[in-house]
């Protein structure tokens, strides 16, 4: 399949035109309009510094269904200690900056400065969200992603201490489950997320679920104000760590 060069308009070719690698299109920009159009079609940007913007829709797609989350006994015990504090949308730009730092053994990062600014704009508009993990006053882990309808598109996560990113995801899942979310898009397979219950599904199935999810209203705005109401975060953490 050829790789499409995007026009000025925020439109994309059908995802089944993607190459075997999942690469679908090149070019365009990272405007909120184009990014949201991409996510609605099951497409996401992924490229490095010095490269043109590349748009992907892999097959299969790696997803986590909220009711399939797996939390190990050791992780439950770790969360029960209460050493970590979890917040939502309190430090979005700090989380994405931490995710942007190269991992051990990596020379660079796919989260370009352009991408950091683009997702910051989506956060300002109430579409992109972060989960922060704190140890005292120090940000030690977290994740960020985009929410549309009843789908959450995970973009990246980081841990400065063991299991911090897992704590972020484990805390996020019951909030989404309570609000009827259908899935968390993990994009491509990793052992880290597979251990938490994520699994591959055919792209066609992913797009069908996404289509249904987008029929529902998007939970826009600051999730910290919504999720922390009446100490909801604490109650959900207690439920997730119950044996």
Keywords:
243 residues; alpha+beta; Alpha-Beta Plaits; Aminopeptidase; seven-stranded mixed sheet; 23% strand; disordered C terminus
Question: Mind sketching the topology for me?
Answer:
Layout: E1 4-5, E2 23-26, H1 32-40, E3 44-45, E4 54-56, E5 61-64, H2 73-80, E6 85-88, H3 92-100, H4 113-124, E7 128-135, E8 138-148, E9 151-159, H5 164-178, E10 183-187, H6 191-194, E11 199-201, H7 203-213, H8 223-227, H9 232-241
Parallel strand pairs: 1-2, 9-10
Antiparallel strand pairs: 2-4, 3-4, 5-10, 5-11, 6-7, 7-8, 8-9
Helix pairs in contact: 2-9, 5-9
Number of continuous helical runs: 9
CATH topology of the largest domain: Aminopeptidase
* SSE string, helices as H and strands as E: EEHEEEHEHHEEEHEHEHHH
Distance between the termini: 50 Å
Largest sheet at a glance? 7 strands, mixed
Rg for CA atoms: 17 Å
Secondary structure category: alpha+beta
Domain unit count: 2
Shape: globular
Q: What's the rounded overall pLDDT mean?
A: 92
pLDDT below 50 for ≥5 consecutive residues: which ranges?
A: 237-243
State the CATH superfamily name of the largest domain.
Leucyl/phenylalanyl-tRNA-protein transferase, C-terminal domain
Strand content: 15-25%
Q: Order of strands in the sheet with the most strands?
A: 6-7-8-9-10-5-11
- Helix content estimate: 25-40%
The tally of beta strands, per DSSP, is: 11
What is the highest CATH level, the class of the largest domain?
Answer: Alpha Beta
